[in-house]
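tool=predict chain=A
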Amino acid sequence: MYRINPRTMMILVAVSWLMTAPIVAQGPAPPAAPAVPAAPAVPAPLPPGQTNDPYPQPIAATEGVIRVNASEFATLPDIDGVPARMMRLVDETGTKRFFVNDMRGPLYSVSYDGKAVSLYVDINDPKWGVAVQSQGRERGVQNFAFHPDFARAGSPGSGKFYTYTDTTNQTPAPDFTTPSPKSTHDTVLLEWTAKTPGAAAYDGGAPRELIRLRQPFANHNGGHLAFNPTAAAGSAERGWLYMGIADGGSGGDPMSLAQNMSSAFGKIVRIDPLGKNSSNGKYGIPAANPFVKQAGALPEIYALGVRNPQRLAWDSKTGRMYMSDIGQDIVEEISPVTAGANLGWNIWEGNYRFVSREAVSSEKPRSDPAMTYPVAEWGQRDPLLQSSGAATGLVVYRSTGIPQLANRLIFADMPSGEIFYISADGTSAGTQDVIRRILLNNGKTMLELIQAKNETQGKKPATRSDLRLGDSADGRVFLLNKQDGVIRVLVP
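tool=predict ok
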């Protein structure tokens, strides 16, 4: 007989008990200790002589503030529940009405009292063959302008207006390209001709293409489109069209186009839309353009060295032209523009030499006499703004309807909706410390007005304003945005 030793017997008994013992529910395992988040990477310190914030003193929050009121003037319709993406308001004095566009294609007529809003033409209507590319925040119908003789029967400019539009149609050959082998879309300048300028809706045919640009990136697609409102009646300049063309996009102007005189990108160009002496025979080149006789330079160029020239404006008192240019990651600027001017980009970002997306040089600002520097600029890190800034505007107010704003150059930061001003006289300082705020309706910002309106609309409050400014011949200043569909007008 096999004898089990006492130690083996104890093990067998223990195993038998474990196999037959009732299973007792166990409590939940204690929670694991929370993971300690990794500390954010600390950026390497910048080398001496470089900075990412050349204006450590912020824009004054309360000093010199001008307070005005903003009244709701008109409302554009939503498209599929999304508010109108307004970019521009034009006062067409000949037919006595405003025009306002939605980047997705509609161009609306708005009565002078704001009570009547009607569709004038949908640029994205398939019958026109334009195929507006409006994906993302930056693409769509960028801008438009009416010929000064739009309402003048029998004149060459009668019934003509112009649109500056991003399109998915890249079948036609472009007039202007970049070295990039890839492209995202085209941007086209189109001429429309209404048969009856005063008609409630556009009654003309398909548009005529004047200029086609092949875009290498999806951002920085357009800019302003305008005729000089201060040009003398009967002068040739009255019919010349100014067009802001951005640097092609991405960041930092990677192909160095803004300083390349053989490229249209990163320039303000000036053309005669009714002429024929361009290389494609579809528009004219004014003989007064500054680089007409310079070998290797495009004769269309009026000024160079711009990054994203969102707005142009003229001073009715002096005739001086200004531009709001969106900066890279550090400086936003408002600059004067003259024939042949070099606005600096991408050698300079505002008053400071451009180093990279992370820095500008703090040494020797405004030191190149060949450059045209801003009359006002501000840092994107200013506490009044959001995580970044974007210059827009632009109105030189020489009227008396709002006395507080008389003789002010008015501009804005697009995302935050902050509205600013400097003096329109003696505007050569070009620094942040001359900038002061304009507040609305008992001290509110534009974004706060939009958010309050969103609440009444039953919509989620906007986190940015996407503000634009417009003005009229009778001295009114309008506020446009992409978040609530409301056009507002400033009042004392």
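The domain at 57-491 is CATH 2.120.10.30 (Neuraminidase). The first strand starts at residue 50 and ends at 51.
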